[in-house]
Amino acid sequence: MLFADIIIDISVKNLDRTFQYSVPAEMEKDIHIGSLVQIPFGNGNRPLTGYVINLSGTPSFDISKIKSITGIDRQGIAVESHLLLLAGWIKENYGSTMNNAVKAVMPVRKEVRQKVVKTVFPVIDKEQMKKVLEEFEKKHNTARVRVLQYLSGLDSILYNKGVDYSFIIKELKVSGTVLDSLKQKGIIGIEAARQYRNPASGKAQPASQHILNEGQQYIKDSILSDFNSGIRKTYLIYGITGSGKTEVYMSIIDDVVAQGRQVIMLIPEIALTFQTVNRFYSRFGARVSVIHSRLSAGERYDQFVRAKEGSIDIMIGPRSALFTPFNNLGLIVIDEEHESSYQSETPPKYHTREVAVHRAGMMGASVILGSATPSLEAYYRACNGEYQLFKLEERAGSAVLPDVYITDLRKEFEKKNYSIFSEKLRNLIKERLAKHEQVILFINRRGYAGFISCRKCGEAIGCPHCSVSLKPHMYKGSVNRLKCHFCGYEIPVPDVCPSCGSKYIGIFGIGTQQVEEAVKKNFTGARTLRMDADTTGGKEGHSRILERFKNGEADILIGTQMIVKGHDFPNVTLVGIIAADLSLNANDYRAAERTYQLITQAAGRAGRGEKKGEVVLQTYQPEHYSIVHAARQDYESFYKQEIVIRQMLQYPPVSNILGVLVFSENEESASKLAVVISEIVKQYQTVTVLGPADAPVAKAKDIYRKMVYGKCPDYSILRLVKDRIEAFKEQSTEYRDCGINFEFNFTR
Ligand code: ADP
Ligand code: ZN
Ligand code: ZN
C-alpha cells in the first residue's frame, strides 16, 4: 500500500503540518510528488485539495485512522506541482529533507498586509541639486547629504525615473522623516507605484541598442533558430570580459519574450548592481522584475506572485530567482556561471546550473550559461558535446585587452626590494597618478593581515570556539583587535603570546588594510578607497564604494574579490594584483581554477574605456600554469592542463565527490559516527573512501565537525550511498546527538 503526505496550503509556515492519506490502488501509477489531489478533511470530511509532497510504503500512524485520497486534480499542471516535483528531485540528488527542499523552491507567503511600492525621484535638476547639496554639507546635515549625494550620482535615466524608496532607506541608512523633509522642501518627490513601471517616461532616453557584431549575431541566430524549431539545449558562451555576452542575452531574451515565453536571468548577487539591472530595465521596462537579498520575504513573495499572474516576463536575480513560478518558461540564462555562490551553502546544497538544466528540461526551456572563465564542469560538458559551445574572443566596441606583466617577487627580494610593490608596479602607479588615471589594487584576502603568530614558539593565536586563526583588525589607525571570521569572537591583541609568554608576536601575510597603508606611505597624496567585507558593511555598501570610485573620488581602489562584474571603470588603466598566488595555497582541489578565475576577472577591470590598460601580476610562482595562462587570458590552455590533473586525481568534473559532514557538540560521538559512515561507504566497491578526518574547519561555534568523502565516477552510485547513510541515521537509536549534511561536488 502507498501513503502520501499532503500539504493543504502551500505556504512555508504550514509545511510542517502535513497530513497522511492512503493512495487508492487505481491511482497509484498517476500519483507522484507534486500531484494536486482531492481529500476529505477533518471531522466533517470537508472536501479540500492538497499537494503530495512525499510518498512512502509505511504509514506513520494507526492505519485504521488513515483516510483515502478521493481524486486527482488533472486540470493542467499547476506551477506548484512542477516546483514540488523539482524539490523532490533536489532532495534526491543533493540530500536533504523534503521540508528543506520545498523551502528552497517555494517563497514564504507574506502576511496579509499589502505594501505599497514607493519611488523617490529628484524634482530639481542636477545643477540645482549641486547647490542644495553644498548647503546641507555646510550645515553638516549628514543624512540629507547622503541622500542627495546618492541622487546626484545617478545616471540621467535613473535620475529622471527615480529609485525605490525602501532601497534608499536601507542602503543609505536614513529614516523616512529625512525623505519627508526633503520632499517638503521641494527637492524630491515620493510617489507610490512609480517604480520602474514606465522607464521611457519623462526625459529618460530609451536605451541605446547596439548593432551586434558578427560573433554576437552568430550566437543569437544559432540559439534562436534552435529555439524556433523546437530544439531545447544547454549552451555555454565562453566570452572574455567585455566581449558583449550581456548584449547577446538581451537580444535573445527579446525574441523569447515576444513569443509569449518567460525568462529567468541569473546574476550573482555581487554583480547585481544598479548599472547591470538598469540595462535590463531600460530595454524591457515594466516586464522585468528583480529579486535580491535586500528584499524582505514578503517583497520577494510579491515578486513571485507577479510572475505567476503573468504581470512580468523576465525575472532577474541570484540563485533563488531560479524558482520563479513562471508558467511558460522559455529560457534560463546563468551569467558568470562559474561563481561559487551558485551552489547553495545550506542543505539542500544544490548546484544552480544542474537544477536549471533539470527545470528547463521539465518545462521545455533552453539554458544559456555564460562566463569569461567557465567552470571546469561547464567546459568539460561543452567539450563532451553535452552543451553547445560558443566563443567570443574579442572585446565588443572599441576596448582592447590589457597588456599583462608578470613580476617575480623572489627576484624583488633578491634586489632588496622588501616593499609589497615590485619596481614595475611602483613605476606604473606613479605614472598613472601623474596622468590622473585610476588604479585598482587587487588582493585576494580580507582584513589587515593573515594572522598573528609568535616568533618564538610559532603558535598562531586561534579562536577558542573554531579551529581557525584570529584575524587582526585595525581600529583608529592601529592593529588592536583580533576577530574570528567564523563566529565573530573578538579580543584585544594580547601583549604576550598566550601559549609561551614571549613578547615577540607579529603579523604575517598581507591584507587590504596593509596595502592601503603602503600606498599612503609610498605615494603621498594619492586618494584611496578600500573595499572588502569589513568596509562594505555587508552586501549593501559595496556598490556605493564602487560608485564613488567611478565618480573619481579616489585614485586607487584597493579591494578583494568583491571587485567583479557589473561595473565598468572607463578611467582605470592599471590593475595591480598584489599576490596572485595566495589563493593557490588554499587546501582545495579547485585552487588552481579559482586562481585562474580571480586573476582573469581582476585583469578584466583594466582598460574598459578608450584608453588601453595594463596589468601587473605579482607572484612567487611565475611558472605556475594557472598564472601563466591567466596572464595570457588563455582559458583553453589552462583547461587542458587542469583537466589532466582532475583526471589523474579523479576529481570533478571527471569524477564525483560526495562529502558527508558529521557534526556534534560531543566530539567522541561525531568521531564514532564518522567511522561508521566510512564503513558504509567502503561497502561500495567502485567508491574510493577518504577519511574520516577533521573538516577543514574542525570546530565551529563549539560544534565538532568530521568529514568522510567518497569518490566515484558514477553519480548515481554516490546517490545510493547517500540514501544508505540517511536510512542508517534514521533507523539507528545511537548518535542522536549528531547531525549529518551532504554535499556533492562542493565548490568551496
Ligand atoms: P560582457 O557581458 O561579456 O562583459 P557586455 O555585454 O557587458 O559584455 O558588453 C561590454 C561593453 O561593450 C558594454 O559597454 C556594451 O554596451 C558594449 N557592447 C556590447 N556589444 C556591443 C556592440 N555590438 N557594439 C558596440 N558596443 C557593444
Ligand atoms: Zn609563543
Ligand atoms: Zn570562532
Q: Care to describe what's here?
A:
With 748 residues, this protein is an alpha/beta fold. It is 34% helix and 23% strand. The protein has a 7-stranded parallel beta sheet with strand order 11-12-10-13-14-9-15, with helices on both faces. The protein has a 6-stranded parallel beta sheet with strand order 16-26-25-17-24-23, sandwiched between helices. Helix 1 crosses helix 2, helix 3 packs antiparallel against helix 4 and helix 18 packs parallel to helix 19. It is globular and about 85 Å long. Bound molecules: adenosine-5'-diphosphate and zinc ion (ZN) (2 copies). The site of one zinc ion has 7 residues, from loops. The site of adenosine-5'-diphosphate has 16 residues, from helix 9.
